[in-house]
Amino acid sequence: MLHVVAAIAPLADLVANVGGQAVRVDTLVGPGVDAHTFDPTPRQGALVAGADLVVYLGGDLQPAVARMATSLARAGAAIDLHAALGGPRDPHVWLDPARMRRLAAVVRDELLRRAPGGPTGPVGTDIADRATRYDARLGALDDAFRATLASCRTRVLVTAHEAFDAWAKYGLEVIGVAGLSPEAEPSASDLERTVATLRQHRVTTVFVERGVPTGLATTLAREVGAATAVLDPMESLSREQAARGIGYVTVMTANLAVLRTGLGCGSAG
Ligand SMILES: [Zn+2]
Questions:
Q1: With DSSP H G I counted as helix, E B as strand and the rest as coil, what are the percentages for the chain, rounded to 5?
Q2: CB hemisphere CA count around 269 (13 angstroms)
Q3: Which has fewest Cβ within 10 Å: 9, 13, 26, 237?
């Protein structure tokens, strides 16, 4: 069995879906923990040092994890999946199902190279089959986002922190109140500009995020008389999600339902 360490929950879910019985997956960022400021423990350092494969995201998403992966993992075992995508500005790449498909292909190939019995043995064949099925699910998810978001009352998506750039490809104008990290403080003029945008586009819903401080976004919503709705950036699972074994596709499907209502898309009613 291959031991894989994944930095965050969506990557762990991807590895488990592709690897099946061939992998044992440990997730570094546990339930309810802030992924951005997360600091690995020495015990997790030992896990990383012994792992067959370590998958994480660079691009300043989790500087402490990136440092640990590059310094402690065995030669060739640490894979920066953000770099594998060419290093887009917003490192929250898992929120784009199409990018997840590319990451699933990278993980499949890394697992196949390490599969006992080789890529064409029983283990390798199972991994390749699983990857094909998971790719189809991710493709269907991407299609559902595109179809649902094709016609909405408003296309302005205002969120608490800047994690949802990925959804701009569906024609949304994505505005994060704080920066790429929830801890970033927006300036007064940034906030004024956001309020003006909200008013100009008659935004009726401001999106806050589970597991992220919501103070500023809630204040802005009140200022323009908008409601708030909760999106899940899946930077970590909640304790309840972890206990129920909730996966990436389920979280994203729920996010799409929240978007449909909040933006007034399609036949949401
Ligand atoms: Zn984030």
A1: 50, 15, 35
A2: 0
A3: 26
Q: How far does residue 214's CA lie from ligand 1's centre (Å)?
A: 13
Closest CA to 259 of 161, 171, 191: 171
Q: Tell me the per-residue pLDDT of 227-236, one tens digit each, with 9 for 90 and over.
A: 999 999 999 9
155 CA distance to ligand 1 middle (Å): 21
Centroid of ligand 1 to alpha carbon of 29 (angstroms): 13
Instruction: Supply the pTM of this predicted model.
Output: 0.93
CATH superfamily of 150-263: Nitrogenase molybdenum iron protein domain (3.40.50.1980)
Domain spans of the chain?
2-146, 150-263
Over the chain, what is the mean pLDDT?
A: 93
Q: Does residue 194 have a pLDDT over 90?
A: no
Biggest CA pair distance of the chain: 62
- Residue 163 DSSP SS3: coil
Q: Among candidates 29, 32, 39, 94, which has minimal Cα distance to 63?
A: 39
187: how many CB neighbours lie within 10 A of its CB?
8
Q: Are strands 205-209 and 227-231 parallel, antiparallel or unpaired?
A: parallel
